[in-house]
What we know:
Layout (H helix, E strand, L loop, with lengths): L1 E8 L3 H12 L4 E4 L7 H5 L6 E4 L7 E2 L5 H8 L2 H10 L4 E3 L4 E4 L4 H14 L2 E3 L4 E7 L2 E6 L2 E10 L14 H8 L4 E7 L3 E2 L3 H9 L4 E9 L2 E9 L3 E3 L1 H7 L8 E4 L6 H11 L5 H5 L5 H11 L10 H12 L1 E3 L3 E2 L7 E6 L17 E3 L7 E2 L4 H14 L3
Parallel strand pairs: 1-2, 1-10, 2-7, 10-20
Antiparallel strand pairs: 3-6, 4-21, 5-6, 8-9, 9-10, 11-19, 12-15, 12-18, 13-14, 13-16, 14-15, 16-17
Helix pairs in contact: 1-5, 1-13, 3-13, 9-12
The structure holds flavin-adenine dinucleotide.
Flavin-adenine dinucleotide binds next to α1, α2 and α13.
Amino acid sequence: MQVTDVVIIGAGAAGLMCALTAAGRGRRVLLLDHANKAGKKILMSGGGRCNFTNLYCEPDNFLSANPHFCKSALARYTQWDFIGLVGKHGVAYHEKKLGQLFCDHKASDILGMLLDECAQAGVELRLETSVSEIAKLEAGYQLQTSAGLLSCTSLVIASGGLSIPTLGASGFGYQVARQFGHTLLPTRAGLVPFTLTDPQLKALCTELSGTSVEDCLVSCNGQSFRENILFTHRGLSGPAILQISSFWQPGDTVHIDLLPHIDLPEWLAEQQRERPNSELKTLLAELFTKKMAGLLVDSWFVNKPLKQYSPGELKAVAEQLADWQLVPAGTEGYRTAEVTLGGVDTREVSSKTMESLKSPGLYFIGEVLDVSGHLGGFNFQWAWASGYAAAQYV
Ligand SMILES: Cc1cc2nc3c(=O)[nH]c(=O)nc-3n(C[C@H](O)[C@H](O)[C@H](O)COP(=O)(O)OP(=O)(O)OC[C@H]3O[C@@H](n4cnc5c(N)ncnc54)[C@H](O)[C@@H]3O)c2cc1C
């Protein structure tokens, strides 16, 4: 049986950060993953360029049933700490927009950096290793793995959530939490595209598939995000839609202002005064693509010269464009979701150490916990911060 100080299950973002930091403190660390490669999600992230943190990271950027939980870890390992690590390794990066930092070259720069740090600190990384049984010892844990028996003083669960099973996601962390008496909050896909079944809506989205509309205001359940939306064959995607999906529950109506930067009643009244013979389709083609203007008018309005619109009709046009209401049929689910909402209830975990309040020596970090970030580098920042916090105590 191999005896070590710390076993970390899951060599993703949180597990790698925890491993390199704990080993840097002189702990003997064994990092296990059932996949054939560490950090697969890091490699896929940010369209292959990894949006590794956000300049404006704040606790308000996170969703959790216990909103205060993330504050302590985020304050002790900030975006500036991770930017410092990136700088130390000479990884080139840039701000794309809204404080989102991306690699100039490839996401593998970030993974390479973390693996280098792990190797330098003496972390033992074991891939293609699965854990079939965990038993609590008087002091520590014993694990039955595909590579034999292990025992450790501290056991860290960093196995992530359910999103994208093909990248190694599994419900393992939730099973361990349940085994040791933890409460699990219901999980669902977050940062995920919407699907539509209403035939008219679906036809509109299919026709416009690939069209992006810049600067829309998307709202649901008291939350709003102002960003692009993208029409897809299945429904709607794009940053504003992904963001709002984390706040959406089945049956909820989503409100989309397609032109938040324009005072529409005023603009339409002006057009009616100055270009009374122009048709609505022609005018809207100045705000959207010609194809989109045509399809929107055919779906929602009657196309005619503006002088023929009554004040009530013009008001209805303005209202529809500023408040397009739709009820998504669902989401694309874990197959494409960037995160899993819900998970291990943080009220049973120490916000200082990430240690279980139910079973001493057991730690939970990263996405397996009920902490999910907005789109924009916040989820990685949570993985870094929670991994770092646990590493101080394991
Ligand atoms: C396509 C995509 C793009 C993303 N882009 C961004 C982005 O640009 N910026 C951002 O901030 N966030 C992004 N995210 C979210 C981010 O990747 C996650 O929030 C983050 O990786 C969570 O880190 P984690 O270490 O908790 O889990 P993960 O990174 O998912 O790591 C979990 C690890 O545990 C392993 N594992 C699972 N089950 C077992 C088991 N039974 N036994 C052993 N090992 C196991 C997995 O193989 C995996 O290596 C993206 C997510 C996806 C899916």
